[in-house]
Amino acid sequence: MLVAVWIALGVGVAAVAGGTALVVSRAIGAWRSLRSFARGARDAVAAVEAKAAAGEQRAASLVRKSGDTTTAVTRLETSLATLAVLRAAAGEAGGGLRRVRALVTRK
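The chain above was modelled as a monomer; its predicted structure follows.
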């Protein structure tokens, strides 16, 4: 009967040792997964920050280009107004020239 107690005690100790080993191995796996997740999250946050900085630079560039575009549109409107004046003057001069040419005889 004493042998049965020792066998039961050995089985119990083996079960506890096996359970402890399983818990430890699962805990180590969970710890590695957590570290991997933290590393991935850190890399993702760094990528988002880099993209945000690039977006900020693009926005600043667009603001500068917008100012340049506004200046260019103003110059274009001035040039178009000047062209309209010159066309009107050329039309008036052309009208006088046509009247003079009408008086000149042709062969």
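DSSP finds one helix and no strands in the chain.
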